[in-house]
Amino acid sequence: MSAQFMNMLANMAPRSNRSLEDLRNSTDPLKGMDAMELRGWASKNPMVPSRDMADALGQALLSFLHGNNTTVQDYISTRKDSLGEEALGRDLYAARWGPTRIGIYNVLLVFMTTNPDSKTRLLDLARYLIHEINVPTTASDVTGATALYWSISTKPYAQPEFAQLLFDAGASVNHRNRFGNTCGSEIAQVDFSGDTSVNVAMLRWYVEHGGDVDGKDNDGMNVRMLAEMMSKRVPKMAEVLTRGRGERKEGECGNCGREPGGDRVFANCARCKKVRYCAQECQKVDWKAHKKMCVAA
Description:
With about 300 residues, this protein is an all-alpha fold. The protein has a domain at about 250-295. About 50% of the residues lie in helices and about 0% in strands. It has helices at about 5-10, 20-25, 30-45, 50, 55-65, 70-85, 85-95, 105-115, 120-130, 145-150, 160-170, 185-190, 195-210, 225-230, 235-245, 280-290, and strands spanning about 265-270, 275. It has a two-stranded antiparallel ribbon. Helix 8 packs antiparallel against helix 9. The chain is globular, with a radius of gyration of 20 Å. The chain starts with a helix and ends in a 7-residue tail after the last helix. The mean pLDDT is about 90.
């Protein structure tokens, strides 16, 4: 282990007197051994469809997975009649399954990974939920991670097409879970028993979409530090960070590259008026690079 990693462990906050149940049922930020406790529990307690999806929506999703293309739409149609269109999106957004309480897009991600032959149909279902039912993509699980987070985290998922769909719908690559990690942190913590080229590819996706590599998590680590720690065994990850995200086209967000769409125009940097950002989060992430060239207009 590197000296940097050993130093991180030595300075890690000790386990508190909070119970595991309390950690699971709260939403506050965690660090040190508390974070490791919840992370370890979550990794050992995945959602099991046959056990955890006994509710009506869960059964509709399982039936869809097994080839019945109308079950989810039939369920949605029935719920829409009783709830109304606006409340329906909130209702589907609030649905959770399994010990780690994953949302509907996370369920689709699990299905894509375990049933790759159904991926095209599942992507179409995700598009339907996003564009026609307006189900937000920001739902998080008990660890605070979103579907986009897991879709490029490489543990165990790597579904960049699904990630792009969620990103285009407004999901953020810089969302931080309860441990202060972005999905970039998960990518950079390489499992050497697997194909490390996947980590390199997903880290490249993360960086190209405006991923923050310098912001620190609750234990003081960031993506750049983790990639450097792994550089001897996976040198291409450090190369990805050196190469950076590439140029942005006019009108795109200066950080993540998101296009405004329709008649929308992103706001300019208030100082130089030359670079546009889709949100304050992206402007904050990009400031380290942008400040070198930001001159008052």
